[in-house]
From TrEMBL:
Superkingdom of origin organism: Bacteria
PROSITE patterns named in the record: ACYL_COA_DH_2
Protein's UniProt name: Acyl-CoA dehydrogenase family protein
Entry similarity comment: Belongs to the acyl-CoA dehydrogenase family.
């Protein structure tokens, strides 16, 4: 019943082998250390850069891998299948860096991308604010033009890579009265005066993910740090959010497949009432349902991965992929926790770790409710 995945080529699978070895060798042994520290270590970022595992879709002339979206998906799948938690590679490579590639000037690409690809500059993206979640047109962080500089004031929250980042892509208002037509994207180096990191946020899961608040108190950045055109940032965000949502869908299905394998192994070994948990009809029926849902999610998401390799995917299609994959993952995780009994609540078991780590997939990248709204607009 394994699916023949035709969406990937041989070069994709070669990268998969490299990525799998890297995550098993360099990341899993450090997981406990990362969880305790509340962040990943910078040396691992540099190692990932040397292995060619950062920014795999960035053109080779800027230091990237020169690959396509399939390479990004392979990396995301292997990272999450491995059990590594809190290493926000996708935020750096697949969500933030593509904005520079698509909307940056040649000078900006030459200035920023090589260090980003090497892991010397760690990236974050700042959209969400304390009073504004998915409604990006309502952000309040402002950037006021003052000669050859912008002066930025405001705050952002839920920033992945918030402690480690060296540069942040900031969505802000350059025309506060214009709603979505007044949003701009500005790159801000974190060593600038007035930039401040807040507390590391204590989350339900992913303790190694350095999710923080950040603040801008009269932060001055050169106008040359504007990405794309002034007041056109909302359009840029809408174009790139589809890829972010599809990446989330891709690794959600990969994680579901791995958790199903682990749960089947567990129930066949776990003794209960002179047999195993596997011997109960309820167990087999539950796992049959999960298998069917996993196959459905895999087939759907692989189709959309193929579509996005040639950038044919629409906003609504990306929303369908994220909604179905993340909602299916969460329902199945809950069922698999139940099949583990009390051990399903113990963090030493992968299913319990997934229970805390992956609830967020229905929230970030746009909540499930936002995805439903996007889909309904084309009904």
């Amino acid at each position: 019943m394994n699916i023949n995945r035709t969406v990937y080529r041989e070069d994709h699978e070669m990268l998969r082998d490299t990525a799998r070895r890297f995550f098993e060798r360099e990341c899993l042994p450090r997981q406990a250390e990362w969880d305790k520290a509340g962040r990943t270590d910078r040396e691992t970022w540099l190692k990932a850069g040397r292995e060619g595992l950062l920014c795999v879709t960035v053109p080779a002339e800027y230091g990237g891998g020169g690959g396509d979206f399939g390479h990004s998906c392979v990396l995301a799948e292997e990272l999450h299948r491995s059990g590594v938690s809190g290493f926000s590679l996708s935020v750096h490579s697949d969500i933030t860096a593509p904005y520079i590639v698509r909307f940056g000037t040649e000078e900006q690409k030459q200035r920023w991308l090589p260090k980003i690809c090497r892991g010397e500059t760690i990236m974050a993206i700042a959209m969400t604010e304390p009073g504004t979640g998915s409604d990006l047109k309502s952000i309040r962080t402002t950037a006021v033009r003052d000669g050859d500089e912008y002066i930025i004031n405001g705050s952002k929250t839920f920033i992945s890579n918030g402690l480690n980042c060296d540069m942040v892509l900031v969505a802000c208002k350059t025309d506060p009265k214009a709603g979505s037509k007044g949003v701009s994207l500005i790159m801000v180096e974190t060593n600038r005066a007035g930039f401040r990191r807040g507390r590391k946020l204590e989350k339900v899961g992913q303790p190694a993910a350095d999710t923080t608040e950040i603040f801008f108190d009269n932060v001055r950045v050169p106008v040359d740090n504007l990405l794309g055109e002034e007041n056109k940032g909302f359009v840029c965000l809408m174009q790139e959010l589809a890829q972010e949502r599809l990446i989330i869908a891709a690794y959600s299905v990969a994680k579901l497949e791995r958790l199903l394998e682990q749960t089947i192994e567990y129930v066949k070994e776990r003794k209960a009432f002179d047999g195993t948990v596997w011997d109960f009809q309820n167990t087999k029926f539950k796992l049959a349902d999960i298998k069917a849902q996993t196959v459905a999610a895999r087939t759907l998401v692989d189709y959309y991965i193929g579509e996005h390799m040639t950038r044919r995917i629409s906003v609504q299609e990306a929303a369908i992929a994220k909604l179905f994959a993340t909602e299916t993952l969460w329902k199945c995780i809950d069922d698999m926790v139940q099949l583990h009994g009390g051990y399903g609540y113990m963090l030493e078991y992968p299913i319990a770790r997934a229970f805390t780590d992956y609830r967020i997939t229905r929230v970030f990248g746009g909540t499930s409710e936002v995805q439903r709204d996007l889909i309904s607009r084309k009904l």
